[in-house]
Amino acid sequence: ITFFDNYNCSVNSHGQTFQSESTQSEISHNGGGGWAPERTDRLRWLQVDLRERVEVTAVATQGRFGSPDWVTSYMLLYSDTGRAWKQFRQEDNIGTFPGNTNSDGTVHHKLSHSIRTRFLRFLPVDWSPGGWMGLRVEVYGCAYKSDVADFNGRSSLLYRFNQKSTSTVKDVISLRFKSQRADGVLVHGEGQRGDYITLELHKGRLSLHINLDDAKMHPSSGHVSVFLGSLLDDQHWHSVLIERFNKQINFTVDRLTKHVRTGGLDDSLEVDYELSFGGIPLPGKPGTFLRKNFHGCMENLYYNGVNIIDLAKRRKPQIYSGNVTFTCSEPQLVSATFLSSSSSFLSLPLDAATETLSVTFQFQTWNREGMLLSAWLRRESERLLLLLVHGQLRLTHHRSALQSSDIVIGQALSDGQWHTVSISMGGFQVSLSVDDKPPSTMQLKDIAQPGRSLVIGGCPSVLTNQGCRNPTMAYQGCMRSVIINNQPINFNLVQQGLLGNYSKLQFDICGIRDRCLPNYCEHDGECSQSWNTFFCDCSGTGYTGATCHNSIFEPSCEAHRLTGSASGFFSIDPDGSGPLKSTVVYCNITDDKVWTVVNHNSTEMVRVQGSSLQKPHVMKFNYSASLEQLRTLVSKSEQCQQEVVYLCRKSRLFNTWDGTPLSWWLDRAGERRTYWGGFLPGVQQCACSLDENCIDMNHFCNCDADRSSWENDTGVLSYKEHLPVTEILIGDTNRSGSEAIYRVGSLHCYGDRFLWNAASFYQESSYLHFPTLQAELSVDTSLYFKTTAPSGVFLEHLGTKDFIRVELSVERAVLVNCTASRQRGFLGCIRSLNINGMTLDLEERAKMTPGVSSGCPGHCSSQNSLCHNRGKCIEKSSGYVCDCTHSAYGGPNCKKEVSVSFESGSSVTYTFQEPFSVMRNHSRQSSAIFAQSSNSRESIAFSFLTTQTPAMLLTVNTYHQQYMAIILAHNGSLQIWYRLNRDKEPDIFTPMSLNLANGELHRVQIHREGRDMYIDKDTNLKYSLSTDKELITIRSLTLGKVTGRAGVDEEVLQAGSRGFIGCLSSVQFNHLAPLKAAILNRGSSLVNVLGNLVESNCGELADKSSSRSLSDTGSRGKKLTNAAQSDSAVIGGLIAAVVLITLCALGVMTRFLYRHRHERTRQMASVKEKDHQPRPELRYRAELDLHSAMRDSRKEYFI
Q1: Are 637 and 625 within 8 A, CB to CB?
Q2: Tens of pLDDT along 878-925?
Q3: Under 8 Å between Cβ of 591 and 884
Q4: CB 134 within 8 A of CB 35
Q5: Are 91 and 156 a contacting pair, CB within 8 Å?
Q6: For residue 901, what are the β-bridge partners?
Q7: DSSP H or E stretch at residue 1146
Q8: Nearest to 77 by CA among 59, 104, 91
Q9: What share of the chain is helix, strand, coil (3-state, %, to 5)?
């Protein structure tokens, strides 16, 4: 065993080698070739005494020389005293070191952080499969010296300033401490005006409290509290560093750092007279709020470069040391760790002559359940059982299998803190107390006497036949200070086999870990833990998953459109699982685009007067999303814009003499911008300059003409990198008659650049390479794919040791995490590849990669229900659109109700084109509505709402005096009339006798094929007609009121004369949508509208189940009238158009005569035109289609 000095140390010396000692009692066999324990030895470790505390930076191991004995993995423990040990863990919390694979090779490990210790213990975990444990070790490091002070809980060090008070803008406090108490003040200082700084150990955590403000003038405005660390009362050294510069504070505990800023107005810390370390000498001092002084040791205590302990040791006058000693006293508290929740136990004997029983111990655990103690009493089947149940203590006295009584005390005892438990049994009572609180007592019917032994933890297997079984699980945690009948239990005797019996225990160490530090729960998820793992409560965070990593919200309004949502307010999470939270936006989902609208605090017109550059008018805009969220939203959008309405009267935007800006706006980065319109950032120009129509050709803005009349410089800002507008400044309204009116609109963005970002792979050897993924703790990956290949690798991420691969295997996606090997490449399409909230730009990378092309066609064939209600899916280069021409519905997915409110006398009539034989075998290309034959087949669907009876809902008549009608009878029942043979009585069907004129929305669906008619009105009914004749050459279809018509039965005529009052919605007749066509084809001579018809959303409002979101569209709409236009109106329109064109031409010519800026404007116009050119449909490369017959049938899947 060797120790090499000055290895990787910051000090300079000659690097000597020292021989260290190993305790012979802890080494069963120590031959010349190395260390190996006896096979019967239960204490299998190698302990090294370095004689004094040193700084250890590395270790190395070999196997036993000339033998098959070596250690393949081990744990490294360290201790100052050789009794209380702590396990060394690397930065990634790995607690074991890989060892040797043979007896001669050397395996060297540089520690991720040095440790200052005297004792090291090498604890073998696994060893040579063909031999035994064998070790030779080397320890590397350097000497370590420190100034130490011991505080007994009533002592402190006072550092007095040279003046009455000191004011600092920069402070640095560093120290190391160790303690066995969970509470105590380490540093405290305060001033008369209310400044203070306090470092406190509270429940094993460090709390830093700082206030820089005057407490009287600004109470609590400058106060900040920071909490860091956990389980710091473990009798081991912990380092602390506090750095403050003005309001910025860096607080570090054991390599974990928090960065915070104080509030308030002041930057300096004013402390009066002194700074105390180890406690507050005057507990009643004003402003103090802490409770206990520190009990433990400190070393290397520095305040702003001053060695406080060194001054105290040299008895300098500026230091007062009260009851402080300069050697660290080591308490003899020794812990044991119960490792297993199923088989750990400690069985201890009891004195048979003892008539009473008292047990005291301290425990520390995260588990809410566990059996702490079981004691058999002398009477048969009688025992005491102490359980930890839901974080409470429950002591149960079992008199028999059916008789028991218990005591329940305590709350939240599984909090990782040390808790003291006392049990006392004597005579007719048993008492239980926890943490020095008053005991709870249970009265017994008979005198209870202890048996021969008691068990701490679970039940030993030898006692299971005696009825000892774990009611829950065995205790798993730490325990110390076990005292039975006033006799402390010596754990050293227990581990040597001289006292009691045990299983799955580790002595001289408390193996508890805070698995919530660092907190792996993301997005403010609440962390809780057990002994072995941690849990994240994601309630109210907007995220889900094991670590609250995955957002529950869609990333964009475009994604909401794909789910079938209509316009409304939605929560979106633009960066997915990234650090930004979700925000609420308005999604305006139209037929051609999906707009994302983000509002701010001032969208009304603002009038400005009396402002100048010296005293300008300033308006700051606070948006409903943070600037970071807006930056992400804008970058993901295809295009964004923001309208700035600006009206002026004798108010200039620029100084007409030297061009100095008199008004400007700030972009999202806070940079000043002086252009007022356009999609490219310009210099001092307005929209009229881009459009070449400014009122004065000598200026770039209308307002710069400085006229007394109202002028307009409204423009649309559309350069994404500058949006949104965060502030506007108006500076030229202080002259007589000068004023301005402005309004900055909401931010509008459309498109999702990454949702349809795709790449097509048509060679197995092709791949896209991206930078290494940083996913040490958590990772989420999502993508859409489609393929005809049965297998292939989607993505693979290789690290130095580990890797992740996602591949398709036998038509299922699997996540592989094993040895990396060459796999078959992926053939097909991948889009929207998202990793940890960041979407990879597949299209851009594909442009420079052979075997891969940008885009992924075939969206319409990849899923079954992109467009609903007879809507037709149409491919686009980036995604798809739904053609709802032949659907009774509208909206982006043909799911939006198209409704009209009918008033008295209102009707819509469709007159089909001239009759022709529908049996001819040819097609007629026409965009108009043409006469048709039903071929003995009709499909009719609509919704209605009314309170009127009788009522005409729909009627169809032909050129051959046939008709069919759907009416409401006098009693409100639905009736369907068919007269297919004018010589016979009509077929009349009443599917339901209920009154449907009840003010509720009803859906009617009718389908006829020949004689069979199927009706679905809240039920499925089938009827048979008297004939299978067809409706031959339909003349017209009418909704609402019908005037006199020959050949129609009296009851139908009566319903037709009454018409319909109410709401008709989503009317479909075969492939036609008559109600929708009435709205869209207002100028057609084939559509005749009578009376008042109001486009409405009455159907959607009535059907609450279809209401998906808040909408800004109300029930009011556009009035529909007969759209026939007179010849005079047409002639007038033509004359107006000619005059307008002539005036525009004259304006352009004048522009060219007076100004010579046309070359620059033409260049900008060409750029604009190029930017707005429609993108051609992406061609699917021939090489990709390895299975051409199957391409269109491929379905898209989401992982």
Answers
A1: no
A2: 667 788 877 888 877 788 888 888 998 899 888 876 543 333 333 333
A3: yes
A4: yes
A5: no
A6: 1063, 1094
A7: helix 1127-1154
A8: 59
A9: 10, 40, 50
**Beta strands, E only, 745-857:** 747-750, 758-761, 781-786, 791-798, 803-809, 812-816, 828-835, 838-839, 852-854
**CA–CA separation, 368 and 457 (whole Å):** 14
C-beta separation of 109 from 94 below 8 A:
no
DSSP 75-105: EEEEESSSSSBEE---TT----EE--SSSS-
Q: Can you tell me whether residue 297 is helix, strand or coil?
A: strand
Whole-angstrom distance, CA of residue 903 vs CA of residue 1100: 18
Among 614, 610, 695, residue whose Cα is nearest residue 651: 610
For residue 789, give the DSSP letter: S
Question: Hey, what amino acid is at 1006?
Answer: I
* E strand intervals along 215-313: 223-228, 238-245, 248-253, 256-261, 269-277, 295-303, 306-307
- Residue for token pair 């040597």: 496
* Strand ranges inside 313-449, DSSP E: 319-322, 335-338, 345-349, 357-364, 370-377, 383-389, 392-398, 404-409, 419-426, 429-434, 440-443
Mean pLDDT of residues grouped by 10 in the chain (1199 residues)?
57 36 39 80 89 94 92 94 89 85 93 93 94 93 92 89 83 93 91 87 92 68 86 93 93 92 83 86 50 90 93 89 87 87 91 89 94 87 90 90 87 94 92 93 87 86 56 86 93 90 91 89 92 92 89 89 85 88 91 88 91 92 93 91 92 83 91 81 78 84 90 90 93 91 94 82 79 65 78 74 72 42 72 77 82 76 68 72 81 82 89 50 36 64 92 90 91 91 87 87 88 72 86 88 79 90 90 81 76 77 44 35 38 41 44 39 36 34 34 54
Quote the pLDDT of residue 272.
83
Which residue in 267, 331, 834, 773 sits closest to 550, CA to CA?
834
How far apart CA 278 and CA 185 sit, in angstroms, is 6
Q: Measure the CA–CA gap between 648 and 705, rounded to whole angstroms.
A: 10
Prior bond of 724 cis (ω within 30°): yes
With tokens 């072995």, the residue in question is: 532
User: What is the model's pLDDT at position 1124?
Assistant: 35
> Which residues neighbour 278 within 8 Å (Cβ) at sequence distance 6 or greater?
149, 151, 155, 156, 157, 184, 185, 186, 293, 294, 298, 324
Distance, in Å, from the CA atom of 620 to the CA atom of 726, rounded to the nearest integer, reads 6
Contacts of 990 (CB under 8 A, 6+ apart): 969, 973, 974, 975, 976
Whether the Cβ atoms of residue 626 and residue 726 lie closer than 8 Å to each other: no
**pLDDT, position 4:** 60
CA–CA gap between residue 1075 and residue 592 (Å, rounded): 21
State whether the Cα torsion 13-14-17-21 is positive or negative.
negative
Cβ–Cβ < 8 Å for 956, 1001: no
Token readout for 338 is 């119960």
Residues forming beta bridges with residue 77, ordered by sequence position = 87, 121
Q: Locate 511 and state its tokens.
A: 């193996």
- Asked if residue 728 lies in contact with residue 740, where contact means CB atoms within 8 angstroms, the answer is no
DSSP-derived secondary structure for 564-581: T--SEEEEE-TTTTSSS-
In whole angstroms, give the CA distance from residue 196 to residue 193.
9
Dmax (CA) of the chain = 128
Closest CA to 686 of 720, 711, 669: 711
pLDDT, residue 1174, reads 35
Token readout for 1065 is: 């919605």
Cβ burial of 783 (10 Å; 0-12, 13-18, 19+) is buried
Q: What's the residue count for the chain?
A: 1199
How many CB atoms are closer than 10 A to CB 1114? 9
> Is beta strand 34-35 parallel, antiparallel or unpaired with respect to 86-87?
unpaired
